Amino acid sequence: MADKKNKPRGLGRGLSALMADVTADPVSTSEPAAGTAPRNAEVLVPIEKVRANPDQPRRQFLQEDLDDLTASIKEKGVLQPLIVRPNKEGVYEIVAGERRWRAAQAARLHEVPVLIRDYSDLEMMEVAIIENIQRSDLNALEEAQSYKQLMDKFGHTQEKMAEALGKSRSHIANLVRLLHLPDDVQDLVMERKLSAGHARALITSDNASDLAKKIVKGGLSVRATEALVKKDAAGVNTNAAPKKAKPAGDKDADTRALEGDLSAMLRMKVSIDHKPGGEAGSITISYDNLDQLDELCNLLSR
């Protein structure tokens, strides 16, 4: 019974709860006792009684975006309630809506509308992650990290996430692959100096860090980036030591897509070497540490 109780919940249930929560009802003007609000009641609480979630998966709040939201709140108020849960100190922790709370503070509001929920720590984290994924202004790395958290912490598969979140499985797989890029390249994506398209083009490169600097410095387009990666792989890059040239079109689109799917599924870099015109080939799986090696051995022994 204990194992069944501790089994991770399905993503659909968490997402359904979130979507139900954001359906706003008329706002009550009085604050209820902590935890006593009806399930769908939206209430106003003093802004000083609301606290940020210390485990908020979203780490970057762009000042320009906050300024725009602050101006909107000054004119129209907070249109979408925050989702919060009460804590033992008599204040409310934000489950979803920290950006709105920050902007409301900047707009000097005294109260904010909230939906009060009695979430567990795991439910709080899951809803916070899903709420972030639903936002349109996440950069590619933040979205990829959110998907990875859902897979690692809650055991959600790419197929189940794609179905529940209205995304394609290839979209999720391609974003998760970005987490295999070097840290300095990931930082450029987080800073929005590189787009997701630029980053995807760099995934197969062994020289991603140096190429990323050239892309940013030259303001290269995604198409130009793809061409640069191909030249570098063929040893044409004049700033790098000559490499053994690879035949043009060495890997077709299907092979690269399969590499991406396997890399996302195993969370390790996978390279497929399939001989043109033949049926034989090889698969290379690269691991970063012994824990990943143990995980791979367990998968292969099943």
From TrEMBL:
Biological processes, Gene Ontology terms: chromosome segregation; positive regulation of sporulation resulting in formation of a cellular spore
Recorded GO CC terms: chromosome
DNA-binding in keyword set: yes
Domain ParB-like N-terminal as annotated: residue spans: 43-133
Keywords: Chromosome partition, DNA-binding
InterPro entries, per the entry: Chromosome_partition/occlusion, Cro/C1-type_HTH, HTH_ParB/Spo0J, ParB/RepB/Spo0J, ParB/Sulfiredoxin_sf, ParB_dimer_C, ParB_N
Coiled coil: none
Superkingdom per UniProt: Bacteria
GO MF assignments: DNA binding
SMART domains reported for this sequence: ParB
Keyword DNA-binding applies: yes
A Pfam family per the record: ParB_C
Function: Involved in chromosome partition. Localize to both poles of the predivisional cell following completion of DNA replication. Binds to the DNA origin of replication.
Family under the similarity heading: Belongs to the ParB family.
Protein name: Chromosome-partitioning protein ParB
Organism name: Tritonibacter multivorans
Taxonomic placement: Bacteria, Pseudomonadati, Pseudomonadota, Alphaproteobacteria, Rhodobacterales
Gene designation: parB
